[in-house]
Each structure stands twice: as C-alpha cells, then as structure tokens.
Input
Amino acid sequence: MLPGPGARKEKNVDIVVLLKQVPATESLIQVADDGVSIKTEELKWVINPYDEFAVEEALRIREAQGGSVTVLSVGTDKAVEAIRTALAMGADTGVLVNDPAALGKGALATARVLAAAVKQIPFDLVIAGQRAVDADQFQVGPAVAEYLRIPNVSMVIKTELLDGSIRCHRTIEGGTVVVESPLPMLFTTQRGLNEPRYASLPGIMKAKKKPLETKTLADFGLDAGALEGPTARIRALSPPAERGGGRIIEGESAAEKAAALVKALHEEAKVI
Amino acid sequence: MGLGRDEMDKSVSEDFLRLKQQVVQFIEQDLEPVHLQVEESAEIPEHLVDKMRRLGLFGLSIPRDYGGLGLTTLEEILIYEEITKTNACFRSRIGTSNGIGSMGILYDGTEEQKRRYLPRVASGEWTAAFALTEPDAGSDAANISTQAVLDGDSWVLNGTKQFITNADTAQFFTTIAVTDETKGASGGVTAFIVERDAPGFVVGPADVKMGLKGSHTHELVFKDCRVPAENVIGGMARVGQGFKTAMRVLDKGRLSMGACAVGAAQKVLDLCVERVQRELASGMAKADLQAEMFALADMATQLYAARQMLYSTAIKKDEGRNVTQEASMTKIFCTEMASRIAGLAMDSFGEEGILTRSRIEIFLRDVRLYRIYEGTSEIQRIIVSRNLLKNSRSRA
Output
C-alpha cells in the first residue's frame, strides 16, 4: 500500500545509549592514599562528555525518525543523577545496573554486563562515547559491539540514517572516511558530532516521572564469577608533569604556518 | 525557617535545585562570557534568546497547565537572583514577559485569554509587556490619563505610555487605561490586552538610558487605537477593576526587583571579596586593608538583612497572604541596599572601578535603576506610609 499524502514517516529507530558517570573535567584530581585510585569525596560528577554527544545524537535521530531512546549505565546509586540528566535532556527510559559484583572489574567485564543488558532491550542502534574521560581506555563501546555480534564504527562525527542502514563519517588521521553499516549496529562518538542541548527546565520536571529501572547481574542470568577480573591492574597513579610552555608553529611563509597549524588542530588537538 | 542562601536551598525541592543548577550552568557557560558584549551592543543576541526559550526560562512563573514551570514566587526569585549576577538585561528580557507583562492575564484573565496568551509566553514565542507608566503619571497608577471608550464592539484607546520595557519585542501589552473618569482608581480603571498590530497603536524609538542598556524601553502612542471588546482582562465583567489587577501585578514585580537587587549586590560583594583576597595574596597587610575589610562586613550584613525580607515576603505571598505593604518595603530596602553596596564597592575598587565598562561601574549604573523601575522608592514610601495611617485609623 502506498503511504498517504504527508504520511511518510521514517521507520522508528530504537536506540540504546551507553552512559558513564565520570568526575567533571574541571575537577581537581588527587591521588588517594592507596596510590592506585583517586580521591572521590569532593568530586563533582557529570555525564561523560562523549556520552553526552551520544545522548544528543540519539535524541536527534529519534526526533527525525521516531522511535525511542534508552539510557543504560553501570554504576552506583550516584549514577542515577547522570541518568536523570539524560532523561531530562529527552531520553525516554533509563536502566541502571547497580551491582557491586559488576564494578571494578575492568572494561571488558563492564562491556559484558552492558551487552547482556542491551540484549533485553529491543534496539536498532547502540551509541556510546568513544571513551570515558576518566580512564581513557577506548574499549567499552567496541567490546559491547563484539559481544553483541554487531558492526562497530568508532569516532563518528556525522551520521545519516538510510533505509535499514546508517552512513557514518568517522575521523581518521588527516581526514574523514565515510562508511555504511546495516542496522543493528553500534557507533562511538567523536567531538564535533553535535552540540549537546541543555536539559530544558520542563524536561527536568518531567524526568522524575520517567521510568528508571535498577537491575543486578542476576537479572541477566550473569553470576559474578562469570565476569573476568580486570585484565590490567593499576600499579601506581601519579599526577601529570607540570605543563610546559606553548608551542610555536614553524614555517617559511604564513600560508605554510597556517597549513601546519590546521594540521595540528585537526590531528593533534582535534578541535577542527 | 532558616533564610540564609544555603538554608534556602534546603527548603526547596530537589527538582527545583536541579533546575536551578541547570540555569546556573547556562548563565556561566552562555551568558557570562558575553556580558560585556551585550553591554556594548545594548542588544541580546537572538541565538541566546533562542537558547533561553529552549531552556524554558520564559515559563518560570506560568502554571504547568499553560505550558510553564509553575514555580512558586520564592523559587522564581531564587532564579532571578542568579540571573542578575551577570548582565542585568538578561533578567529583564525574561522577567518582564513572564512577570508584569503576562501576570495580569494569569491573575484575572478569562480562561480563553489564558489559553491564547500564556502558553505562547511560556514558550517564549511571544513576549509580553506591561503598559502603565505615562508622561504625567509615574508609578502612581491612580493618576493615569490614557482613555478607553467603548464604541460598538471595540474599545478606542487614546493616550501615551512611557518607559515600557521590552516594547520592541512584545507581541502584546497589558495596558491600563481610564474607562470612567468620574470613578478614579477604584472602578474607573480597566486593564486591556493590546496586541502589537492593533490599528492606531505605535511603538516609538528606544530610550537611551544610563543603565540596563540591553533592555529596551519605549514610548507607546495610542491614537484612536481599536481593540476588540473582549480584550478587557477578565472580560466585560471586569471593566473598572483594572487598578486591582495592576496592583497585584506590581506586588510581584516589586519582589522581582528586590531579587534583582539582591543578586547584583551578591555579585558585587563577591567581586570585592576576591579583590581583597588578591591584595592579601600580593603581600598587602591586613592592617592596610582595614577600610576595605570593614566595607565587606557592612555589605554582607546589609545583604543578609535584605535577603531575609525578600525571602520571607516571597514565602508569605506563596501562602496566599496580601503582601502589598511588605513588597513595597522589600523593594525599598533591597534596591537601596544594592545601591549602597555598589557605592562601597566603587570606593574599594577606586580608579579601577571608575573605568567605563568595569564590572563595578556597570553594576553601579544598573542597580540605580532598580530604585526607579516598577515603582520608585518614593512611591513605595507613599504606599507604606498610607497603609500605616490607614491601619492605625482602623484600629482607633
């Protein structure tokens, strides 16, 4: 049957966003007395900035296509705050895996838990930050895709939904590459993908009434013993060296310096 | 109930605190970086107004049934206090519309009027303004001379209004006019909704002012201006009741002015504290900074007192009590306190402060206007003293 006039609505896309709560980037990080962790008492906690891009992209896709956005996180009670913020931005439902056995076991164990949780949610698309800005491991997103046996595209700066597939622009050294993947798939975000919205004030009021489920490993048929321990252990933490002076771009001509600067801004600073 | 700033945070809901946190983040990330640009261009960039709309700032005081947030008076002034820590015109852009411009419709309008105007104000699609002041009648609302005469199925308005905030952007004006000269304020004054495209309605050029430069005031001219008969706020049954509507609107407006003064004064105090800390850090002895340190103590003490008045009056209003007297006293004290603090800060900053576009200089000019807007200090004193005399007579 042909769609009626003006009735053309793209296919609904159900999206799961993987979200981690991390210390605010402007926090003063201090090494704890044990030497292998950081002091957390006075930190302000926020949504991982790359995950904020993921929430925003999910909302934009839903607004254009219809569908749903579920925010999924592994964390403690504290992480409710981050999920509520995502719900206030406009996500539909939240799921928090809050189980001591799921914490502190490293990126692959986290990915296994997240993958098990995603399997219980109908989805066409999973969006994750390229990395969490706390441990900077870059592992969880791709590992979840691997556990789910779905394609993964990382470092995405632009997306285009097609019929049953998605076109992703991802950054590579010196440029961008455009790839297409069938759905369902997972992609991770890169700076430049979008500008995350503020949670609107009415959104904040409504967020409290949105469903937020708390789950434990048992809900996924996982038992703590099945999760591998961390594959790497932190032996010592130390603050970074004091920052040195700025860098002067060398070059024969203004044009040459500008080219070198653009290259540095694109490839190193990744701001353009 | 404790009434310090932090205690107040404990006496409002967690939802509200989350909301306030979002507003503070918006102020710090989007408004504060352009506060000077806005001062110099005397204009709020439209993309920022758009962000305010998306954030929901235009619906603070409008009930949820009409698309707003339905904050209490107390919650609303806590938000205004934050916004006036940056350039004052941002608060004015929001607060005039979802404050004095539209509150008359909320308080006394018909259901149809509420449905037509309030959701559009709450979304920020429409801006509302309040037209009371005239060339020969300042804040003393009883002396206005703009006339409205019923002619068939429309009212014909003639007169001039002055210093009308946001007249450049407003789509409609809550306009107070005389409908029966023989009756004066009680029974002879009516509140109308005048839409911008009403025939015979003209908005004059912007006034050039010493402060609040990014918030524009204009003259309005009504020349045989026709508005539909049903545009009386509250319908034909409320012809002659406009003075009451205006007074109720102003009670709230006066508390908002108090909040603006408190927010600005807090920012000025913060700047002064930072300055003294800098001086101490650079090796200045405390003994050499005694005048500045005493000034800090005086500022903080006055600010504390002002805040108590503001919060407790807001709470009383939220309890549904009549606060005309208290709102006037609060406006006098808070706005005059802010002027004193800005003056002390200027003494403390010295030549650094008098530079044009220094933070202190901008606040000094802006807070001076709060003593005049929405009822001058003198008008407030008249209200307060007349109430005292009236009450003592009734007791006698």
In short: The domain at 244-395 of chain B is CATH 1.20.140.10 (Butyryl-CoA Dehydrogenase, subunit A; domain 3). The beta strands of chain B are 128-131, 147-151, 154-165, 172-178, 189-195, 201-206, 217-228. Chain B touches chain A through 16 residues (CB under 8 Å). Chain B has 15 helices and seven strands.
